[in-house]
């Protein structure tokens, strides 16, 4: 679970970058739009939370999770899904045993449209599947090769993050701002996204948890960068994501 939480936090700031890189939906209902991505359209169709609801969580469910020993951030994350009923319910799956099936929870989680999804293990005690993170903004491409390339890129990115204990965490407000920019026409070429101007790392403690090395590295210093600058780096600025990936393969 610790690794899943770590990846969730580090991958979330990268979702706008992959949204811009993979944007492949300029046409909606036969109309050519001023957006290259489907993200805003699907958000409007799957998440009806008001701005006020987005910052709330259901107190009863929150307390139940806390009493069960769930740590505060995870309890808040899950309790936030219970502020209202799900939008999606399948007629033939209403009556289910929630002790052995997670479909009801999955439908509820679908209704809270996030670029990352934190997925608990299946209820089957015999399953070897643990906590998972789902990276969700990447769009379907025209060819199998392109789809495979994006899938492999994200998988390799997770290996680099774990191997080097990289820190990408930034303010959620900045991520939301980046996502707004990332869906615009030709965002991959013309838009700049707010991103850390220095990639820092953390260290593993004896308890197996990650800890930021120094106080200065907890400070988030950002600049507006193009997708190319974030992926490939800028001269005399910081090690790029691509540079870390190359170093990983040379080990």
Automatic annotation (TrEMBL):
Sorted alphabetically, the keyword list is: ATP-binding, Glutathione biosynthesis, Ligase, Membrane, Nucleotide-binding, Transmembrane, Transmembrane helix
EC class name: ligase
Any one of the GO CC terms:
glutamate-cysteine ligase complex
Which positions, given as ranges, span the membrane? Answer: 149-169
Is Transmembrane one of the keywords UniProt gives this record?
A: yes
A Pfam family annotated for this chain is GCS
For biological process, the GO terms are:
glutathione biosynthetic process
Quote the pathway field.
Answer: Sulfur metabolism; glutathione biosynthesis; glutathione from L-cysteine and L-glutamate: step 1/2
Catalytic reaction equation(s): L-cysteine + L-glutamate + ATP = gamma-L-glutamyl-L-cysteine + ADP + phosphate + H(+)
Q: What is this protein called?
A: Glutamate--cysteine ligase
Specify the species.
Panagrolaimus superbus
């Amino acid at each position: 679970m610790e690794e899943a939480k770590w990846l969730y936090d580090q991958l979330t700031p990268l979702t706008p970058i992959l949204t811009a890189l993979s944007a492949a939906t300029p046409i909606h209902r036969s109309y050519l739009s001023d957006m290259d991505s489907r993200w805003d359209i699907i958000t409007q169709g799957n998440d009806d939370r008001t701005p006020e609801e987005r910052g709330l969580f259901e107190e009863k469910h929150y307390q139940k999770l806390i009493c069960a020993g769930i740590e505060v951030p995870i309890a808040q994350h899950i309790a936030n899904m219970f502020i209202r009923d799900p939008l999606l319910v399948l007629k033939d799956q209403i009556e289910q045993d929630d002790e052995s099936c997670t479909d009801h929870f999955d439908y509820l989680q679908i209704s809270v449209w996030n670029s990352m999804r934190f997925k608990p293990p299946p209820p089957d005690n015999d399953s070897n599947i643990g906590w998972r993170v789902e990276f969700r903004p990447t769009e379907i491409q025209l060819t199998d090769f392109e789809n495979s390339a994006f899938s492999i890129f994200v998988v390799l990115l997770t290996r680099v993050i774990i191997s080097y204990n990289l820190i990408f965490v930034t303010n959620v407000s900045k991520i939301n701002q980046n996502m707004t920019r990332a869906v615009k026409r030709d965002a991959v070429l013309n838009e700049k996204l707010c991103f850390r101007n220095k990639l820092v790392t953390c260290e593993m403690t004896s308890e197996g948890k990650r800890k930021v090395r120094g106080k200065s590295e907890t400070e988030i210093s950002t600049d507006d960068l193009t997708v190319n600058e974030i992926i490939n780096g800028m001269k005399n600025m910081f090690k790029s994501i691509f540079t870390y990936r190359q170093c990983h393969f040379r080990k």
